[in-house]
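User: quick one, sequence for these C-alpha cells?
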C-alpha cells in the first residue's frame, strides 16, 4: 500500500509540473518584451472604413503647358494622349509637310518668275537709256516724261 500512496502523490505533482512547464514554454500568461500593441490608423483617427468608399475624378499636375498647333497646318500624327506624362524634347505631334513643301515650291517658282521679270525690266531700262542718249534733244525730253513702250519702238508709233 505504500507504493500506492506514493503513486497517488507523485501523479498530481508530475501533472502540475508538466502544466507549469508547458505554460512557461508557450509564454502563456508571461509578458514578452517583443510584444507590441497594434491599432489601425482608421481606429486612431476614428474613421469608419466599413463602407465602400470610392471616388472618381481627374488628377492634374500643378504645372501644365499648353501647346498650340498652327491651325493653318494639318496634323499628320499625334504621339501623346490626354493625361500622358511628357518631358522636354518629347515628340508630341507632326505636321503633314507634303502640303507645306508644295507651297514652298510654288512660292519659289513665283520668286523665280519675279526675278526674270526684274531682269527683263532692267534690260528694257538699259535699252531705253541707250535710245535716249542717241535721240535728239527734243526727243530726249519725251523719253524722260513718257518713255515709248515696246510696241511703239517696234514701229507702230
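Assistant:
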Amino acid at each position: 500500500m505504500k507504493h500506492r500512496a506514493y503513486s497517488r502523490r507523485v501523479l498530481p505533482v508530475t501533472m502540475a509540473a508538466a502544466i507549469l512547464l508547458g505554460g512557461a514554454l508557450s509564454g502563456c500568461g508571461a509578458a514578452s518584451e517583443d510584444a507590441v500593441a497594434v491599432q489601425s490608423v482608421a481606429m486612431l483617427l476614428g474613421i469608419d472604413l466599413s463602407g465602400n468608399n470610392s471616388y472618381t475624378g481627374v488628377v492634374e499636375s500643378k504645372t501644365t503647358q499648353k501647346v498650340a498647333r498652327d491651325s493653318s497646318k494639318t496634323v499628320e500624327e499625334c504621339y501623346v494622349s490626354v493625361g500622358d506624362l511628357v518631358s522636354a524634347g518629347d515628340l508630341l505631334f507632326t505636321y503633314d509637310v507634303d502640303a507645306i513643301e508644295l507651297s514652298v515650291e510654288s512660292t519659289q517658282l513665283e520668286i523665280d518668275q519675279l526675278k526674270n521679270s526684274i531682269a527683263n525690266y532692267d534690260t528694257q531700262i538699259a535699252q531705253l537709256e541707250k535710245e535716249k542718249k542717241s535721240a535728239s534733244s527734243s526727243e530726249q525730253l519725251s523719253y524722260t516724261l513718257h518713255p515709248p513702250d515696246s510696241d511703239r519702238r517696234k514701229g507702230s508709233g
